[in-house]
Design a protein that fits this description.
The chain has twelve helices and eleven strands. Helix 1 crosses helix 4, helix 5 runs antiparallel to helix 6 and helix 7 runs antiparallel to helix 8. This is Heat-inducible transcription repressor HrcA.
């Protein structure tokens, strides 16, 4: 991209910030009222910005709106630090002084406040050890139709769950199961565990144990119920209120996105930051089918239990400076108060 002169940067900034505020195309006459250049000069520079792919025409107006490239330029080179309003500062102060009851409860409160202040959908993933791995899985036969499944991680966590079965199992059956579990489940990361269960383990259980599928279901449930990341969601339906989500297919995609497993998968794929950095994905950078109108701003926080994720989903025309500042405040709060 060719370098923009200062005047063109100012015009692009004005177009982006006007559109963020009003959701209406921006014309040269409107810009001339707020910046000290003639309409003709502004039109010439808008033509230059359009040729660079930073702004684009709409079908319903002679004004211009930012393109994804324009938003990216704005985020990378133009946006300024955001100063919290007194109301925002007060809400954050209340949050920071709120009594800690439990991790889940505290994460949910932070997500709700973040969604209220941004008018977007806020997601916070509970902290997990980056190096958490499975060291042992064992099945204990309690009765012919009842088992206890135990899972031990490399950081000393022990998860266990009782399961009722719909068929009889013998001690010999369970011995075969444990022999295979010892082979496949030592020093295995969480993501690989699901692949193993539905791959090699299921293949060999099928040849050794009758009604093997019941064991597979029990193992899978333990992983899903005990190991899955806790998701705190605030403003779940804020995305559906956005005028950018303007057809049935987009609505379906957004509703699907708001399922816990989908959110975790999306964040795992898109949060490319360490420590206090912030990651911004705009529109098609998220690679969401049917939804090119959303953006994601995210960061990670650190506790003694490991790293967690804070994220805000919103329209491409979200107030990036404001949201980055608010995420930073919530990140500091979680860093300081989650032990």
């Amino acid at each position: 991209m060719n370098m923009l002169i200062d005047r063109q940067v100012l015009i692009l900034q004005s177009i982006v910030e006007n559109f963020i505020t009003t959701n209406q195309p921006v014309g040269s006459k409107q810009l001339a009222q707020s910046i000290d250049f003639s309409s003709a000069t502004i039109r010439n520079d808008m033509s230059k910005l359009e040729k660079e792919g930073l702004i684009k025409k709409t079908h319903i107006s002679s004004g211009r709106v930012p393109s994804e490239k324009g938003y990216r330029y704005y985020v990378d080179y133009i946006k300024k630090d955001y100063e919290l309003t007194s109301s925002e500062s007060e809400k954050l102060k209340e949050l920071m002084s709120d009594k800690y009851v439990s991790e889940d409860n505290y994460l949910e409160k932070n997500a709700i406040v973040l969604s209220d202040l941004t008018d977007c959908t806020a997601v916070i993933l509970a902290p997990t050890k980056a190096d958490r791995r499975i060291n042992k899985v064992e099945v204990i036969l309690l009765s012919s139709r009842s088992i206890l499944v135990i899972l031990v991680t490399n950081i000393g966590e022990v998860f266990q769950q009782n399961y009722k079965l719909d068929a009889d199992f013998t001690a010999e059956d369970i011995a075969e199961v444990n022999k295979l579990l010892q082979t496949y489940f030592y020093d295995v990361d969480m993501a690989t565990a699901h692949v193993i269960i539905h791959g090699e383990l299921e293949k060999y259980l099928k040849t050794k144990v009758n009604n093997y599928d019941m064991i597979v279901v029990a193992l899978n449930r333990l992983l899903q119920n005990k190991i899955k990341k806790t998701v705190a969601l605030g403003g779940k339906y804020n995305l559906l209120k956005q005028p950018d989500i303007d057809n049935v297919e987009k609505l379906k995609e957004v509703v699907s996105l708001l399922e816990d497993d989908k959110i975790v998968e999306l964040l795992d794929h898109n949060v490319e930051v360490t420590d206090s950095d912030t990651c911004i994905k705009i529109g098609k950078e998220l690679e969401l089918e049917n939804i090119a109108d959303l953006s994601l701003v995210s960061s990670k926080y650190n506790t003694s239990k490991g790293q967690g994720v804070i994220a805000v989903f919103g329209p491409k025309r979200m107030d990036y400076s404001k949201i980055m500042t608010l995420i930073g405040c919530v990140r500091d709060n979680l860093n300081n108060n989650l032990k």
